[in-house]
Amino acid sequence: MVAxxxxxxxxxxxxxxxxxxxxxxxxxxxxxxxxxxxxTLTLDGLADYVDPRLCPDDFLAWVxxxxxxxxxxxxxxxxxxxxVMGAVGLHRRRGTVPGVADAVRLSLGLGAGGGxxxxxxxxxxxxxxxxxxxxxxxTLPGSSAAExxxxxxxxxxxxxxxxxxxxxxxxxxxxxxxxxxxxxxGPPVPDDAPHAVDAPQPEGPAQSPPxxxxxxxx
Length: 218
Description:
disordered C terminus
């Protein structure tokens, strides 16, 4: 029940005309209108409940599960919404260098693709490569040892949750490729450029000191 909520489809309007002018009948079916009004309103706005931009906060995690995305409750709500909205694009490029970079940017609150005209705070390199040759026996690109290096440059590395970021990289990289996560201090980002979100730090062991690397494995 929602106090004061009027039904968009009053039942009295659906009765035969002979009953619509009866005061008792009007009062009787009004009770059903009060009970059904929230149901009708929910059905009319059903699309909004599964839209990451508009859905209630407690529905957001549910929508994320539909899309196979795990969001951290410690992230601000708006950041979680952006991550869920970018889920389809992340899945399309999952396991690729651009896909890993976009996932890291979203987890830092930068948005996929980085800021327009802003220095890129995320650099991802891997040991793979591709090329072509018109002659057989050409030199193979990349290296035989699989490796992924993710370098994040921020003004203050202590504002980045190292462990959470490492889990993000582990979730979007190829499972068999070991990775190295570097969070290093760099020049301040311009005021008009997106900034990393200062997410609450979880309780537990201390964070890795600024500038240290965090090796990851398959």
